[in-house]
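lol ok so funny story. i was supposed to be doing the assay writeup but got distracted and ended up predicting the structure for this chain instead. priorities right. anyway since i did it might as well share w the group, maybe its usefull for someone
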Amino acid sequence: MIRIPAFKSPTKPVGPFYTREEMEKIKKEHPEYVFKEDKARGKWRRVVPSPDPKKILEGEAIKALVNSGFIVVASGGGGISVIETSEGIKGVEAVIDKDLAGERLASLVGADKFVILTDIDGAYLNFGKPNQKRSRKYGLKNLRST
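and the output, tada:
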């Protein structure tokens, strides 16, 4: 059993939308799958854990390449989700947050700047809450570590 908090309550939607009937049929074939209803659409989607990336396994190799002057493309899509077990590294069904994985990689290689490109209209403090505030630029005083 995996004892990582994100695995207790999966939240990251993946794959297509399903009707209730389609979802129930899939659940019979895969009882381990977790689905959540998208009430706005009246459909269901499978959800998987989105754990906090703790380590980039290839981190030291990436750092060596960067320090040697190479341009390295890494942590795209957040990376492949794995956990360390008593038997070694094991793949798990989960989605790694790509922005957080990118931040971990930037810290590892000692990047001077970390930039996230996105198609949204800005960054938000208190996103999704009544007091959310949009901005296109934040200084360090406005940011907090999570």
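The chain is about 25% helix and 20% strand. The CA atoms of residues 123 and 138 lie 8 Å apart.
back to the writeup now i swear
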